Amino acid sequence: MKVLTLGGAMIDTIAVIASDRIERMTMRNAETSFLLLEEGRKSDAEDISTHCGGGAVNAAVCLARLGHDVSALVKLGQDARAETILAQLAQEGVSTRFIVRDNRAPTGASVLISAHDRNAAIFTFRGANALLEPKDLKRDAFIADLVYVSGLSNQSADCFTEIVEKAKSEAAIVAVNPGIRQLSARQAEFRESIGKIDILAINRHEAGAIVPWLVARAGEGGTSLPKLPGEALPDLALRGLMAGGFEISLPRFFAGVLALGPRWVVITDGKDGAYIGTASEIFHCPAAPATIAGTAGAGDAFNSTFAACIAQSASVEEAALAAAANSASVITHLDTQTGLLRRDDLEKRAAALKETLHLHRWPT
């Protein structure tokens, strides 16, 4: 399968701090925690390492390891970071012929502080990632079976409508994993294009960003997913989404988004797994068991694996199990790419999960 990935390319610097060397504050009435760094003081780290990352690069490596013919379309600076990313992509067999270099800004970079439960705090410098322009979108890049669009930053988000248009003009399946700023500050472009998106993949926080707009169209409230006999359901299934002073049940959220055009809508929810909505059913796939080294990149692994499986006509259950297996492998490593599986390993792990991981499903 021929694939194009677009979006972020970063160099990630990851600092691992022992839990007894950094304080954490957890809010009692919210699902929020903060790492507290003391000003003017050095803290010993267990490890500091540097890796390639970014949504488009993570997805490209993921899909190349699954045996697909992958090209990446990202914007890099004229610097050593860019050379590192280009070398990594070449090593993974990802084509770099559509990558654009720009001397107006350095290549993007992130610093991840990992401590306590290893759900890292991330400082991000977007750099050249924010400078994508229409002239960078060469038409032949979009001759693909699957176009996977990760989060687009600032000016680059202005290209979103054209990216989707070009992908659909080549009859590609369009999978989109937009970032939170794209769904808030740049929501107009997203709204304009949602009818041409085939697979929309967002996390719980990102889903909240479109709740006020969706409620205006589909209404507030709605019926929750019914409890299944003898089984406890995660919070999101029972309470739905709450944002901007509005509440909407998960079935109503999925129905509202699906009515706008997408055929598959994915909401990832960290340790509580992922939900997939289609025109006929809602699925819940629990997170696969794993020893967590770092959570960064889990969403990229899940969403790109799911999209690739769907594009090859897999069932939702097959796609979700493969995605869960790949994301579980990623979080056993500190960085976003080491744990990405090759096809044979993924198929074996997904088959094993089918015996142990129970997917819930509800008709709509």
Q: What are the key terms here?
A:
364 residues; alpha/beta; 9-stranded mixed β-sheet; 4-stranded mixed β-sheet; 23% strand
Short description:
The chain contains 12 helices and 19 strands. With 364 residues, it is α/β, with parallel strands linked by helices.
Question: What are the SSEs and their pairings?
Answer:
Blueprint lengths: L1 E5 L3 E7 L6 E4 L6 E4 L10 E7 L1 H11 L3 E5 L1 E2 L3 H12 L8 E2 L6 E7 L6 E5 L20 E4 L10 H10 L3 E4 L3 H5 L2 H7 L5 E5 H6 L1 H8 L16 H5 L1 E3 L2 E3 L1 H9 L5 E5 L5 E4 L3 E5 L12 H14 L4 H15 L12 H14 L3 E4 L1
Parallel strand pairs: 1-6, 1-11, 2-9, 7-8, 11-12, 12-13, 13-16
Antiparallel strand pairs: 2-5, 3-4, 9-10, 14-15, 16-17, 17-18, 18-19
Average predicted confidence as pLDDT = 93
Largest sheet: 9 strands, mixed
Tally of DSSP β-strands? 19
Biggest sheet: strand arrangement: 6-1-11-12-13-16-17-18-19
What share of residues are in beta strands?
15-25%
Indicate the percent of residues in helices.
Answer: 25-40%
| Rg, Å, rounded | 20 Å
Q: List the total number of helices.
A: 12
Distance between the termini: 32 Å
